[in-house]
Design goal:
This protein is of the alpha/beta class. It folds into two domains: about 140 residues, Rossmann fold (3-Layer(aba) Sandwich); about 190 residues, Dihydrodipicolinate Reductase, domain 2 (2-Layer Sandwich), CATH 3.30.360. About 30% of the residues lie in helices and about 25% in strands. The protein has ten helices and 15 strands. The strands form two sheets. Strands 14-13-12-11-7-10-9-8-15 form a nine-stranded mixed sheet. Strands 3-2-1-4-5-6 form a six-stranded parallel sheet, sandwiched between helices. Helix 4 links the parallel strand 4 and strand 5. Helix 4 packs parallel to helix 5 and helix 8 packs across helix 10. The chain is globular, with a radius of gyration of 21 Å.
Length: about 375
């Protein structure tokens, strides 16, 4: 593939999750993809609400619109796809794209269960496709720097990683609408572990440098506001293949009026530790006793991420709010750019459909552990 050729892209899913909008009011994936240099969005596909196709034609009159993935593939010439669908519908769409030889990036979550991705993984491997996942946490500069320190030996052998991802309550007097799509078993396949815990499970395996060997989990519904049979609190004890350990707490627990997002990540090695709390903040605290660590044993690394209006939630008169999820817009764009660069280079990618499978396999094991009350070995087979 020529490095100068314009890549033709399609966007599948306009009404779900991080799809966003065509204007600057909600600049997520739709918005970002249209502004990528060297990429032309030639078509949009929406499975759920046809009014979004009207919006697509209004803002992008030269693009074609479709209401089914089959029609899109049959009638449109394109190189790559961005997929933002409900988890129940993702595997079918990905399998059709993979069988047609199309590269894709896909928003999480990717399926109800890991077995739903088996045929997708096989097709991607068979056709040597580039794939990319919406697990952008590992691409934050703080995570990249921490992974670099681990690789340099500054932190010593990985011992323990702990993650926390708590967001707003669902339902009740202090929560959000319990009827929203993320809280329905039929569409999502699970609760907070499935919806938000996946981000940290990927980030933690990235830092530990290996997969989870076994998991002991407890899932609960202590608030009891959600009528759907999904958890609003998950607590996981993790054993990694390198002999290290981890813990993860995630839930829909924050009352309205309290900070909506409570996220943190701590890594501990034999010679040092790092604290990224609040997670996504432009600040990483690192300490190390290693001789490879120059200067003071304790350092704070601050990050200045520029405000990029085309790729940032707008903050009137100021830069990107780097204390909350809005920080994501700057490095979110870099993450999408990496996918396009990998397609051009013919690389499979650095965060592939295989990684989606591994994270889902660990989630499957966690659900089994919570159901049976015993520690469960993670099965990474196809």
């Amino acid at each position: 593939m020529s490095n100068t050729r314009i890549l033709k892209a399609v966007h599948i899913g306009l009404s779900v999750g991080h799809a966003g909008s065509f204007d600057d009011s909600k600049p997520r994936l739709i918005h970002d993809f249209r502004r990528l240099e060297g990429v032309e969005v030639v078509a949009y596909c929406e499975l759920y609400d046809p009014s979004y196709l009207d919006d697509a034609k209004k803002h992008h009159p030269n693009a074609n619109v479709y209401s089914s993935v089959d029609d899109l593939i049959a009638n449109e010439e394109f190189d790559l796809a961005c997929v933002v669908l409900l988890p129940r519908d993702v595997p079918d769409a990905l399998l059709k794209l993979a069988n047609a030889g199309k590269h894709f990036m896909v928003d999480k979550q990717f399926a109800h269960k890991s077995e739903d991705l088996h045929e997708v993984v096989r097709a991607v491997r068979r056709n040597e496709l580039t794939t990319f996942l919406a697990y952008p946490v590992r691409f934050h500069p703080a995570m990249q720097d921490l992974r670099g320190l681990i690789d340099e030996g500054v932190m010593g052998d990985p011992l323990f990683v702990e993650g926390r991802f708590v967001t707003g309550q669902v339902g009740g007097p202090h929560g959000s609408d319990p009827l929203g799509v993320p809280y329905r078993m039929e569409t999502e396949g699970g609760g907070n572990l499935h919806y938000v815990g996946c981000h940290l499970l990927d980030g933690m395996r990235y830092l530990m440098g290996c997969e989870i060997k076994s998991v002991q989990a407890m899932n609960g519904r202590p608030l009891g506001y959600i009528e759907e049979p999904i958890e609003d609190l998950s607590i996981l004890a993790l054993e990694y293949e390198n002999g290290g350990y981890g813990s993860l707490v995630c839930g829909y627990m924050s009352a309205r009026g309290a900070p909506e997002w409570d996220r943190g990540l701590v890594f501990r090695g034999a010679e040092g530790q790092a604290n990224w709390t609040p997670m996504l903040a432009p600040r990483l605290e690192v300490s190390s006793a290693s001789e490879k660590w120059s200067g003071s044993p304790e350092k704070v690394i601050d990050y200045t991420l520029p405000a990029v209006p085309a790729f940032a939630f707008p903050v009137p008169g100021g830069p990107v709010d780097q204390s909350s999820g809005t920080i994501g817009r700057v490095w979110f764009h870099n993450w999408i750019r990496r996918f396009v660069d990998d397609v051009r280079a013919g690389d499979r990618g650095v965060l592939t459909i295989d990684d989606a499978l591994y994270v889902l396999q660990s989630i499957d094991a966690a659900y089994e552990s919570a159901r049976t009350g015993r520690r469960v070995e993670v099965n990474y087979g196809l």
